[in-house]
Amino acid sequence: MKQYIAKSEEKLIDLQKQIQAKDNTLQNTQQNMSRSEEKLIDIGTKIQAKDKTDQETMQNMTKFDDDSKVKLEELQTNINMLQNETMVIESKSIRSCKDISKIHSAKYSIYVRNDTLASVVCEDAAFGGGWIVIQHRFNGQVDFYRTWAEYRDGFGSLDGEFWWGLKYLHWLTSARKYELLVEMKDYNGSYGYARYDRFKVGSEAQNFYLKVGNYSGTAGDSLFYSQNMEFTTKDSDNDKTKRVQCAEYHHGAWWHNYCTFANLNGPYTDTPAAKEAMFWYEFKNDNRPMAYTRMMIREIDP
Q1: Three-state SS string across the chain, please?
Q2: Per mean pLDDT, which range of 23-27, 85-89, 103-107, 277-281 is the poorest?
Q3: CA pair distance 60, 73, nearest whole angstrom
Q4: pTM of the shown model
């Protein structure tokens, strides 16, 4: 019996030791879990701090980008203002396309009278360059059947078809000597030009009368009949004939006499031998319509 009790006590002591070992293991596990939890909290805190730092960095970068954009825009504005001021200063000495070097059919601004600036297209390739384009037609997108005021002030777009303006022609040609070049091409692709060694337009009070000099070229002289003639539009009849109003008859404003041998401001049409068409009679001795016309003037060296 005593032996049985002794063995039971030994088993009980062994069981207590096992329970104590498990308690120690559990305690160690809890301690490790606690330390892991602390580490996780620390990592989370560091991540939050990093996120906050990254957010602040992004905000600073965005603010820097915004500030840089504003400063860049201010710089570009100042550059543009400086360029405009420089152009105005330079333009004060520019009175014709001959004063502008190294250009190729570019738009520019010149002084046409005192402090009056006007935009022009300068042609630098054809016939030695230095030409101011005063009329250009090539696709019929601009209606040229216009009033006196429109022909006086100009219309259309310098990037497309246009009439520069009679008042500008008067201001330039009354102050300095100019020559005239007229280019044309028919619907068959035949090209011709007419060049006049003098070109002058009178004032509006003189109805913008025309004076041209000696002719040379390949298109024939169709301006001989317009010499000293006043300009006529659909609403201002200054031609010589009483039978018809020539601008209405030909549907084109021009320096009409008893009407005209040239109608370069007439309707853009390919109708053969039409009185209402862009024609230059002496080109082929008929009223064949033109597909392309360009009129240009150039200052003559004194």
Answers
A1: CHHHHHHHHHHHHHHHHHHHHHHHHHHHHHHHHHHHHHHHHHHHHHHHHHHHHHHHHHHHHHHHHHHHHHHHHHHHHHHHHHHHHHHHHHHCCCCCHHHCCCCCCEEEEEEEECCEEEEEEEECCHHHCCEEEEEEECCCCCCCCCCHHHHHHCEECCCCCEECCHHHHHHHHHHCCEEEEEEEEECCCCEEEEEEEEEEECCHHHCCCEEECCEEECCCCCCHHHCCCCCEECCECCCCCCCCCHHHHCCCCECCECECCECCCCCCCCCCCCCCCCCEHHHCCCCCCEEEEEEEEEECCC
A2: 85-89
A3: 20
A4: 0.71
Residue tagged 């006049």 (tokens): 196
| pLDDT of 25 above 90 | no
Query: Which of 212, 209, 208 has its CA nearest to residue 199?
Result: 212
Taking only the tens place, the pLDDT of each residue in 55-107 is 777 777 776 667 777 777 777 777 766 655 444 444 445 778 988 765 566 78
Note the pLDDT tens digit of each residue in 191-250: 999 999 999 999 999 999 999 999 999 999 999 999 999 999 999 999 999 999 999 999
User: Which pair of structure tokens corresponds to residue 102?
Assistant: 């190294």
Residues 6+ apart with CB under 8 A from 184: 191, 192, 193, 219, 264, 280, 283, 290, 292, 293, 294
The residue behind tokens 């054809």 is: 126
Sign of torsion over alpha carbons 93, 94, 95, 98:
positive
Dihedral (Cα; 145, 147, 152, 156), 10-degree rounding: -40
